[in-house]
Design the sequence.
């Protein structure tokens, strides 16, 4: 991948995030207003000060008008972007590049999704007319195929691996229980998670991310301007995106134990940011735990664990809140649910809190006090074999 | 010499034990079993599977005509046979047409094929209706059957030649069903019996006379009729030696409507030796008698999926499940959006894939692309592909899952990633299996199914089903290739 990156050329100077919940009393406009108001206030600016806007939403509205109308922006360039579950991160990526290019001084990235007005459980993509031969499987079932494939490849006992997956959910529930903005704030034991009836393969309902409405926003400017807006900006170290070509679905060489799109985006992001050993350099990682096997494989694809060893690291607590590398200290998709357009920016919001030492004490990761200054956010959208993946890295210190 | 070139049948995997009916329906049922089409099968898919069985190994010219008969057509106002034509990948200049709605239509199609020119595929499929607890429900069966008729050709000898045929026609209201009804009404049985006995006898006599034979020359008779009582009476009237009248398979299969004559003929041909005289006698809205003599080729003919083996196979279906599949027991649908109807234009331009299951193969790398693609995976030139038919490919499950959330006419969805022998991978839904039967290493074959119905449109595509050993167990690859 031939990316140059924009390391330290853009800074995040304000962020906002609504509680993620079944917001039956709030519409898309309400969520947009709340997230952007918090973000703009954090940067000490008003909405007329922003030069350009990027709105990420998968299916809660068409075009930039959704945001322009909600905030009554006057003559503003507003672009709606969609890239499946990486939609929110894609909005940030576009806003950051626009600022880095010099086209705008101050830009805002907003992600929103209003999921709970559909009347159905789960996420349901808008159907594109087709010949009717496509899969109708749920995402849970597609990701459930990772567990038997992983067990087979690495010779892991199926029941033990199932408990590892449940342990990932249990960890994220424990983190989410300490987060007032999370949808689910209850701790869940491995036993309780394993006791749930199966919904797909070995996965029970608590192996799946929740479903919630929410919005999050970030204000970005050129790095040299950052201190006009805040004393503690986050510098964008890396923004990487890979849209897979779907060949994993049809290529017999693909074995369902890895997500090559994630590995490629991760490697690109580390190169952009100059990160050599993510497990020891990152203070935290916010990753796309849509289903428990997903987070297991991500630990390897993002280079946090050796191939075939993530399940052992999970068992050891390496990625617990007080572990060597805290993963999803805010509770992850598991606790927040997954308003598609908002999730990427919600992850960034946790990085914003943690790196600036603004997280509540019972959730603040110790790695920051130990001197680590970097956080990673990661999204994927799609399925094993056919997905988009985003990896971003932010940090509190500009490079020397 | 015109005659029968190939025959094949398809019995659905599921069997209903008639003894289980009364406890639910409050009556009805009986002894023995009947076949039950899967929730993803209809008359068209049953016919496709039967025709695939008949044509497997057929080395002669492709059919120039396809006549499809059924009492239960999935569509009115448009031809059902075109989907069969597409699934079988018959030549574009082959004519395909439906022979409308009555049990007699399959015999009429067979007569037309025998009278016509060129290789002609006569195919039938039926998913018989019937109200819970009715005699009709218990007696019915679901099946497909196919007969290829034509002249002898290189590699495709005639298995049985036509010696003569005869018919009688009479307007008899022994049964009727208004389109859309789920039951067939019957007049008092004795009435039909009194009409069919002379009609059957007359057609029998005329056909034997046309063939220059006597009753005593006949080695095997198959009697097919929606009127079971008349069939028994006419068979008795013929005064044949014990064992000449073939098993009507009602005890194991049931009566599959228009498919019955072709199914019984296929079964009789599998049991026949060379030089035997076989008579098909059909009693429906009159009578038809067709007299065949088997050739020496029948001795070496190996049917792809013998009827007897299919009768012996299968797996039980609980009666309530059967009722649910037929829409006779309404149950809570999944709380997911209904699947969208397939696009007619997208289906038309992707017909080779959707109906024919034809993938593409990259000339440079040999990689098989499912669905067919223009740009090859891994780079390389665009539009350097050739068609790669996959319908008869066999594969192995690489990984699998059971989806209890996905929308399905019969949850849960059993799903697997399949690697085909000789190349090609497809994540695909499985059918004709229980959830616990599928895992890494299970061997599968492809079958043409109706995935779902939306806005009245039957969404046809292919599924995989486990290959089964003689004892009914799913076949597993001897040594599944270790992943990675």
Sequence:
């Amino acid at each position: 991948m031939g990316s140059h990156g924009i390391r330290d050329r853009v800074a995040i100077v304000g962020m906002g995030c609504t509680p993620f919940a079944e917001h039956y009393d709030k519409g898309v406009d309400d969520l947009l207003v709340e997230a952007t108001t918090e973000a703009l206030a954090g940067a000490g600016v008003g909405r007329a000060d922003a030069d350009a806007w990027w709105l990420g939403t998968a299916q809660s509205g068409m075009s930039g008008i959704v945001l322009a109308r909600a905030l009554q922006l006057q003559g503003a360039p507003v672009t709606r972007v969609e890239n499946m579950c990486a939609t929110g991160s894609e909005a940030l990526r576009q806003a950051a590049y626009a600022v880095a290019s010099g086209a705008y001084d101050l830009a805002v990235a907003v992600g929103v999704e209003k999921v709970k007005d559909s009347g159905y459980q789960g996420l349901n993509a808008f159907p594109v007319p087709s010949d009717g031969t496509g899969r109708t499987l749920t995402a849970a079932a597609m990701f459930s195929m990772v567990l038997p494939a992983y067990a087979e490849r690495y010779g892991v006992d199926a029941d033990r691996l199932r408990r590892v997956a449940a342990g990932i959910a249990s960890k994220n529930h424990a983190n989410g229980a300490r987060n007032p903005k999370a949808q689910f704030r209850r701790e869940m034991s491995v036993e309780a998670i394993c006791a749930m009836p199966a919904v797909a393969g070995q996965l029970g309902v608590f192996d799946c991310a929740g479903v919630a409405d929410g919005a999050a926003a970030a204000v970005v400017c050129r790095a040299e301007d950052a201190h006009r807006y805040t004393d503690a900006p986050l510098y964008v170290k890396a923004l990487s995106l890979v849209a897979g070509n779907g060949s994993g679905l049809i290529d017999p060489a693909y074995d369902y134990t890895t997500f090559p799109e994630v590995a490629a985006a991760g490697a690109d992001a580390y190169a952009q940011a100059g990160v050599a050993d993510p497990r020891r350099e990152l203070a935290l990682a916010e990753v796309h735990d849509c289903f428990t096997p997903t987070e297991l494989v991500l630990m390897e694809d993002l280079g946090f664990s050796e191939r075939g060893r993530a399940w052992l690291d999970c068992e050891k607590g390496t990625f617990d809140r007080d572990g060597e590398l805290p993963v999803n200290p805010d509770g992850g998709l598991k606790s927040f649910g997954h308003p598609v357009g908002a999730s990427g920016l919600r992850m960034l919001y946790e990085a914003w809190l943690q790196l600036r030492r603004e997280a509540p004490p019972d959730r603040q990761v110790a790695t920051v006090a130990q001197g680590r200054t970097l956080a990673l956010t990661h999204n994927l959208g799609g399925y094993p074999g056919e997905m988009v993946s985003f990896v971003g890295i932010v940090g509190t210190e500009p490079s020397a | 010499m015109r005659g029968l070139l190939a025959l094949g049948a398809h019995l659905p995997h599921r069997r209903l034990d008639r003894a289980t009916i009364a406890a639910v329906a409050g009556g009805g049922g009986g002894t023995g079993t009947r076949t039950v089409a899967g929730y993803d099968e209809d008359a068209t898919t049953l016919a496709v599977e039967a025709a695939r069985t008949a044509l497997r190994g057929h080395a002669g010219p492709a059919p120039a005509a396809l006549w499809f008969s059924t009492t239960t057509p999935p569509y009115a106002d448009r031809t059902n046979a075109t989907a069969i034509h597409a699934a079988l990948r018959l030549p574009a200049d082959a004519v395909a047409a439906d022979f409308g709605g009555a049990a007699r239509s399959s015999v009429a199609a067979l007569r037309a094929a025998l009278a016509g020119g060129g290789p002609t595929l006569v195919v039938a499929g039926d998913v018989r209706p019937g109200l819970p607890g009715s005699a009709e429900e218990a007696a019915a069966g679901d099946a497909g059957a196919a007969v290829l008729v034509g002249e002898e050709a290189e590699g495709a000898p005639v298995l049985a030649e036509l010696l003569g045929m005869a018919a009688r026609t009479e307007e008899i209201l022994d049964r009727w069903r208004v389109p859309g009804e789920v039951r067939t009404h019957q007049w008092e049985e004795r009435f039909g019996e009194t009409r069919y006995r002379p009609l059957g006898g007359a057609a029998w006599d005329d056909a034997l006379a046309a063939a220059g034979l006597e009753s005593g020359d006949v080695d095997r008779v198959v009697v097919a009729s929606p009127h079971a009582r008349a069939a028994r009476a006419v068979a008795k009237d013929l005064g044949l030696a014990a064992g000449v009248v073939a098993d009507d398979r009602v005890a194991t299969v049931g009566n599959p409507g228009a498919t019955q004559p072709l199914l019984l003929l296929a079964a009789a041909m599998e049991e026949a030796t060379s030089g035997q005289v076989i008579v098909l006698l059909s009693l429906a809205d009159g009578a038809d008698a067709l007299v065949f003599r088997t050739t020496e080729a029948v001795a070496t003919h190996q049917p792809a999926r013998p009827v007897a083996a299919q009768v012996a196979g299968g797996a039980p279906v609980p009666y309530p499940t059967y009722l649910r599949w037929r829409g006779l027991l309404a149950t809570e649908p999944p709380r997911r959006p209904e699947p969208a109807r397939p696009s007619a234009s997208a289906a038309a331009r992707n017909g080779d894939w959707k109906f024919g299951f034809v993938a593409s193969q990259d000339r440079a790398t040999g990689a098989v692309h499912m669905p067919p693609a223009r740009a090859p995976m891994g780079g390389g030139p665009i539009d350097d592909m050739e068609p790669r038919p996959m319908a008869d490919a066999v594969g192995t499950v690489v990984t699998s899952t059971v989806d209890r959330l996905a929308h399905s006419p019969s949850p849960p969805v059993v799903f697997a990633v399949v690697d085909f022998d000789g190349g090609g991978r497809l994540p695909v839904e499985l059918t004709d299996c229980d959830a616990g039967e599928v895992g890494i290493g299970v061997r599968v074959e492809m079958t043409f199914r109706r995935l779902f119905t939306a806005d009245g449109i039957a969404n046809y595509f292919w599924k995989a089903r486990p290959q089964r050993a003689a004892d009914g167990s799913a076949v597993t690859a001897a040594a599944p290739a270790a992943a990675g």
Notes: Residues 480-484 of chain B have pLDDT under 50 and may be disordered. Chain B touches chain A through 52 residues (CB under 8 Å).
